[in-house]
Amino acid sequence: MNMQITKILNNNVVVVIDDQQREKVVMGRGIGFQKRAGERINSSGIEKEYALSSHELNGRLSELLSHIPLEVMATCDRIISLAQERLGKLQDSIYISLTDHCQFAIKRFQQNVLLPNPLLWDIQRLYPKEFQLGEEALTIIDKRLGVQLPKDEVGFIAMHLVSAQMSGNMEDVAGVTQLMREMLQLIKFQ
């Protein structure tokens, strides 16, 4: 399948229009190198393609992917694929939220900035499947990128997965988790 480039984000990521006139973000090593908008590319060099449900998400993904290394994107894609195998369909926005989160978590780690997760214990108890996937995500990040993120990140990743299973946003999920934490505290002291 041939695709026409509409925008080059970097050497490894381009925005294209496919034969069915759908806008996609595609990535592959060197896929945008020495290319111009309007040129056609062959799908054989594409390692991953994203066709999101809304034009707005596609725009946000394009912007995000233009600043994130291919290895981080591929690692997050592996984590999301694993999560979909275990949890079922996830909201398309997970590609943006989780990739963005992981990139900044890696930057924070490299700068020795720790972000504690005060809800870690609660997340583990309330969302055990997502928490386990968060643990596996940290292992994948370590193996693929050589970065050992702190345990607190397990909870943050789990919350992104919980949010992607719902139609709400991350703040809603965090609010529900906080409410459940307070309810558990009340029950414990009764």
TrEMBL record:
GO biological process: one example: positive regulation of DNA-templated transcription
Keywords for this protein: Activator, Repeat, RNA-binding, Transcription, Transcription regulation
Record-linked Pfam families: CAT_RBD, PRD
SMART domains: CAT_RBD
Keyword Transcription recorded: yes
Family: Belongs to the transcriptional antiterminator BglG family.
Designated name of the protein: Transcriptional antiterminator BglG
